[in-house]
Each structure stands twice: as C-alpha cells, then as structure tokens.
Amino acid sequence: MSSRSNHARLVALEKQMNEAAAAFDFERAAALRDEMARLRGEGEAIVGQAPPGQIGLGSNAPLRQPPKGWVKPKKPPSLTKNHKGRGER
C-alpha cells in the first residue's frame, strides 16, 4: 500500500471515528482507532496483534512480549512445607 493511499485511508478512518464518537458508538470508534494505529505501525500498543512481518517463522501465532518495565513476580512460599504426605503420620 502506497503512502498516499495509506494517508487517504487514515483520513477516512479518522472521519468515521469522529462520526461514530459523535453518535455515541464508542465501540466502533475504538475499533477504528485501533485500525488507524495498526496502519500507522503503532501495533505494539494493541495487545495480541503483532505488526506485519513480526510473526515467528513456522507459526501463525504472534510473538507476545510483556509490557516494558514488567518484572516477573516472586514465587509464593509453598503452603505444604510442613505437611506430611499420605502414610507418613
């Protein structure tokens, strides 16, 4: 898609988004906003959709990355630490 047709598509989508928001159809407006972000290449902000060409080889599932700054939580302590198994009474 050329940049000129891409720009025309973005302008049309923005107009439709504004019309949907004015008509209080916020779900449609949000879907149009997401489509505009995808066309601009801002797909990282959309959870679950990889930008074109970013899908792993041999798979049609997008590669998912945790948000920036996210750290894995610590593993909670075992609740069965002092528990005896069956037959160990």
List keywords for this structure.
elongated; 0% strand; mainly alpha; 89 residues
How does this model look, in words?
By secondary structure, the protein is mainly α. It has a domain at 3-44. It has helices at residues 3-22, 26-40. Helix 1 runs antiparallel to helix 2 (26-40). The mean pLDDT is 77.
What is the overall silhouette?
Answer: elongated
> Could you list the spans in which at least 5 consecutive residues all have pLDDT below 50?
none
Number of strands: 0
Work out the radius of gyration. 23 Å
Average pLDDT for all residues: 77
The largest sheet, given as strand count, sense and whether it forms a barrel, is: none
**Distance, first to last CA:** 72 Å
Query: Which percent range fits the helix content?
Result: 25-40%
- What is the N-to-C order of secondary-structure elements (H for helix, E for strand)? HH
Helix count equals: 2
Estimate the strand proportion: under 5%
Specify the structural class: mainly alpha
Question: How is this fold's topology laid out?
Answer:
Layout: H1 3-22, H2 26-40
Compact summary:
With 89 residues, the protein is an all-alpha fold. The protein is built from two helices and no strands. The relative contact order is 0.08.
